[in-house]
Specification:
- By secondary structure, the protein is mainly β.
- It has one domain: Maltoporin, Chain A (Beta Barrel), CATH 2.40.170.
- It is about 5% helix and about 55% strand.
- It is built from four helices and 32 strands.
- The strands form six sheets. The protein has a 17-stranded antiparallel β-sheet that branches.
- A hairpin with an 8-residue loop joins strand 21 and strand 22.
- The N and C termini lie far apart (about 55 Å).
- This is TonB-dependent receptor.
- It holds the Pfam family TonB_dep_Rec_b-barrel.
- It is found in: Cell outer membrane.
- It is a multi-pass membrane protein.
């Protein structure tokens, strides 16, 4: 049965008589995109398929999470997940799997983390998103690693005048157990634009829920004879799986804080500063076994009680962004620098009983630094973009044994540790050339060098015969990423697009060094992995009835 929430909401606003910032921005920029070329380009001239989501689209759909802004776009797959309780969602563009193979930007700063290249949307609301641009196809020629499936660029808003916004609500499913229960949400922001053209926006959002039961306990081992309450569920290959319980309700609490400053100076230069904090924690309560004895009493049978429980987890990340743009050499120079610090990304794996006992806690803090500088200039029918980029990642995964899995502070000894650093530097150029009034070509080329260093694996908590203590030497790899695209407006209502390009993705710290052990099985990382590459070509048609051809 679908979840039908009952919501109460209160909204307060005090906004100047100037046009609403969302409306003004979307009206001005709706036919123009930036992501495809790194300079303002008419949507019909963009080299490749681009989809745009505006603030009006977001408001009309009453979207709460930023992942929902793109989940209805063609060629985009976002794992539905469990709503507020699903911070990390599988994402793919045009069938290229896994979020680590698509570059996701928030105001120009990558959201793909420095540990596994994954995405975490927990605590990031849709309220401040002004615009989303989705560019399909390999884009390493402009954006380097991760941009194999494409680029998703989230752009946040700034106020045009004084404003105050408050949105709060409460929700419950009509039928208990069919959706998150006792959902509480509050979004608050305030901002203004001063006489010196300095714009300020500050605020935060908070959300929590008592959750519902979403994780089932299954086993391929049949229950002990004489027990009832279980149910056989066939697998795809026809072999039986036995449904024997659930892991309880997933309780969730999250918050996001942000500060944005932006100013246009008297000489025409612009600068901006953003800070954003994502944080959430979760836990599960009330596990259930469906198994019953002959007397009708609940039991776990011969199964390990740890199958029926999940431990707590928490996450916190701070993102800083500083940008500047100025005119130089008759063109425009833009510099974008960022720092992302994941202080904690932990979860607990119980190995004891439902009430407590032994367990392990895994934490994967990571830090990333970014600098991207590019320059645009038009020369007649050519618009040239050239730039430099730098990214540094440092990540560590530490796993400790716990004397009591219900308390993450009961660490006893280091079980396993993996760490590594990666640096990627790139140089790129692209020429967007208007061959005729109805024909545009884009030629791009990028060179990236990836360096991996300080790689190590240590497993002091493993059985003595299988322990690993290794340090790995520095490695370097490089990649060329070319791209050629053509856009031809053959008729007023018909535009043909075609592109040919390649992209790459360097392996992550997780893939290189995160060797793990579950039971008696060891899952080995591969420190010798090389960057992935992809070569693609595509042809597309845009049909727009009643469109007028340009002169």
């Amino acid at each position: 049965m679908p979840f039908k929430p009952f919501c109460l909401a209160a909204t307060a606003a005090a906004i100047a008589s100037l046009p609403h910032p969302s409306t003004a921005f979307a009206t001005e920029l709706a036919p123009v995109v930036v992501t495809a070329t790194r300079h303002p380009t008419a949507l019909e001239d963009a080299p490749g398929q681009v989809e745009v989501v505006t603030a009006e689209d977001i408001a009309r759909r009453q979207i709460n999470r930023i992942s929902q802004t793109i989940n209805e776009l063609p060629g985009v797959y976002v794992q539905p997940g469990r709503g507020i309780m699903q911070p990390s969602q599988a994402l793919s563009l045009r069938g290229i799997p896994d979020e680590k193979r698509s570059l996701v930007l928030l105001d120009g700063i990558p959201l793909n983390d420095g540990y596994a290249g994954g995405l975490n949307f927990g605590g990031l609301p849709a309220d401040n998103i002004e615009r989303v641009e989705v560019l399909y196809g390999p884009m390493s020629s402009l954006y380097g690693g991760n941009a194999m499936g494409g680029v998703i660029s989230f752009q946040t808003r700034m106020p045009t005048g004084p404003e105050f916004r408050l949105r709060t609500g409460f929700g419950n499913p009509f039928q208990s157990g069919k959706g998150p229960e006792n959902v509480r949400k509050t979004n608050l922001s305030a901002g203004t634009r001063f006489n010196n053209d300095l714009a300020l926006l500050v605020g935060g959002n908070w959300a929590s829920t008592d959750g519902y039961r979403t994780e089932w306990v299954t086993s391929t081992t049949a229950p002990t004879a004489g027990l009832t309450g279980w149910r056989a569920v066939p697998q795809k290959n026809g072999a039986p799986t036995y449904l024997i319980g659930n892991k309880g309700r997933t309780e969730w609490d999250e918050h996001n804080l942000f500060l944005k400053l932006e100013q246009k100076l008297a000489n025409g230069d612009r600068w901006r500063f953003n800070w954003q904090r994502q944080a959430y924690d979760y836990g599960q309560d009330g596990p259930q076994s469906y198994l019953r004895t002959a007397a009708g009493a609940p039991t776990y049978g011969a199964y390990a009680q740890s199958l029926f429980v999940n431990g707590d987890g928490n996450y916190q990340r701070d993102i800083y962004n500083l940008g500047y743009e100025t005119e130089m050499l008759a063109g425009l120079l833009k510099i974008n620098a960022g720092y992302s610090s994941t202080q904690t990304n932990s979860y607990i794996v119980p190995t004891g009983s439902v009430a407590g006992g032994s367990g392990r806690i895994s934490d994967s803090p990571a830090q990333s630094r970014f600098v991207d500088a590019w320059w645009n200039r038009s020369f007649g029918t050519h618009t040239l973009t050239t730039g430099l980029s730098y990214r540094y990642d440092h990540a560590t995964n530490s796993e400790y044994t716990l004397s009591n899995w219900t308390d993450g502070d009961t660490k006893t000894a280091l079980y396993a540790k993996a760490a590594g650093r990666a640096t990627t530097t790139g140089v790129y150029a692209q020429d967007d050339w208007r061959l005729r009034h109805d024909l545009t070509a884009s030629l791009g080329l990028r060179y990236d060098r990836w360096t991996n260093s300080d790689g190590s694996i240590s497993t002091p908590g493993w059985p003595a015969a299988s322990r690993i203590f290794r340090d790995y030497p520095e490695r370097q790899e490089s990649a060329w990423s070319p791209k050629l695209a053509l856009v031809w407006q053959t008729l007023p209502a018909l535009t043909l697009r075609s592109s040919l390009g390649s992209a790459f993705r360097a392996p992550t710290v997780y893939e290189l060094y995160r060797t793990s052990r579950i039971g008696s099985t060891t899952y080995n990382a591969n420190p010798n992995l090389k960057p992935e590459t992809v070569q693609t070509w595509d042809i597309g048609v845009d049909l727009k009835p009643l469109a007028e051809r340009r002169d």
